[in-house]
Amino acid sequence: MLSLIGRLSPLFSQDIFSHQQALAAEVSRSRFLVLGGAGSIGQAVVKEIFKRQPQALHVVDLSENNLVELVRDIRSSFGYINGDFQTFALDIGSVEFDALMKQSQGYDYVLNLSALKHVRSEKDPFTLMRMIDVNVFNTDKTVQQAIELGAKKYFCVSTDKAANPVNMMGASKRIMEMFLMRRSKDIAISTARFANVAFSDGSLLHGFNQRLLKQQPIVAPNDITRYFVTPQESGELCLMSCIFGENRDIFFPKLSESLHLISFADIAVKYLAERGYEAFLCQSEDQARELAATLPAQGKWPCLFTSSDTTGEKDFEEFFTDQELLDMARFENLGIIKNEPLYDEALLEHFTDKIGEMKANRAWTKEQIVDLFFTMLPDFGHKETGKYLDSKM
User: Fold this and answer.
1) Most buried one in 86, 133, 277, 321, CB count within 10 A?
2) Taking the CB of residue 290, how many other CB atoms lie within 10 A of it?
3) Which of 20, 74, 68, 19 lies closest to 45, judged by CA?
4) Where does the pLDDT of residue 161 fall: very low under 50, low under 70, confident under 90, or very high at 90 and above?
5) What is the pTM of this model?
6) Pairwise CA distance, residues 112 & 97, whole Å
7) Domain 2-197+229-259+316-338, architecture per CATH
8) Crossing angle, helix 231-244 and helix 20-28, to 10 degrees?
9) In the chain, where are the structural domains located?
10) Terminal Cα distance for the chain, rounded
11) pLDDT, tens digit, for every residue of 246-261?
C-alpha cells in the first residue's frame, strides 16, 4: 500500500517506538469505549488498543456486519486478551445506547470515530441534517456522557477539511470543534486532523477494489491531489492524540518528504499496474462502460480521468490555518495545534436552537442550513455548483 501512495516507510514509526512503553503501560491499566469503532479508522484504533491489553475495550457501531468482521479480524490476528472485550451494534444517538452508558462501569478513555465523512452527503437537506446530528450533536452528547461516567479523556476525529472549510462536511467538523471547546472546561479533550485514509470504506481508492471485482471502469479526478495515510497510521495517530494529547490539542501529521500530495489518477495507474493491467484512457462514461467487457482480457483496464466540478471539492489540503498556534517540537512526525478555550456561548446556543426549530417543523432547506453555517463560520468558503458526485460514475 505504501508504494501506491508514494512512500517507502510508515509515517509514525519513530514516535510509536519512542513512546511504546508509555503507551503499553497506560493502555494496559485503562478502560476504553470506542464509538464508531467498526469503520475503517475505528477498526484501526480498536486494533491498536486491543494489542496493548486494555482492562476493558467496548466497541459501539451502527454496522452489525462490520462489527462481526472486526471481531473475526481481531480473533484471527491478535487472539484474546484478559480484559473485557465486547461489541454493541447500536446507534449512539439512541435510547439503547443511553441505557448502555447508564449501566456501564465507566471508562477512562472515550474515543469517538463516528462521522458522516463524505462531501457528497451535502447533496440533499435530509442527509445534511443527519450529518449535523452525527458530527456535531452526537459528539456533544457523548462528551457529556463521558463526563458523567468520570472519564479522564475524550478523543474524537476532526478532519483536514475543518481547516478553512469549503464544504459542509468540513464545516460541520469545525463547528464540532467549537462545541468541544465549551466541553473542555469539564473534561480533557483532544482530537486529530489527518489526511485521507487509503482504501478506507467508501473512499475512492476502496472503490478501485470494487470496480475490479465487478469488472467496471475506474474513474478518478485528474486535477485533485491529496495526502494519504494508511489505516494503521490512522489508528496510531488517534491513539497518540488520545493518550498523550493535552486538553484541546489537535494532532496532525507533519508534512515531510514522506508525506506529500499525490493525485487519484496517479494512484489508479499504479494500482492497475500492480494488478497486471495497463490503464486505458477513455473519453466518456459510455466508452468506459462499453470497453469494460473486453479490455481486461487484453491486459488493459478502462479508465476515465476528468476534471472536478462538483460542490465542496477543496483545491488543496491543509491541517492548520495561519491563525493557529503550533507545537512542532514535541514529536518527530506529529504536529500539534494548541488551543485556548475560546468559544461564543450565544453562538452555540443559536446554532442549537435554529437546528431544533427546523427539526420541530419537520421542514428545512439546504439553503437555510448553509446560511446558518455562514453565521457560525463567517469565512466559510462554500461554493455551490449544483453538481454532486452522485450524478457521476
Assistant:
1) 277
2) 14
3) 74
4) low
5) 0.92
6) 14
7) 3-Layer(aba) Sandwich (3.40)
8) 70
9) 2-197+229-259+316-338
10) 25
11) 999 999 999 876 677 8
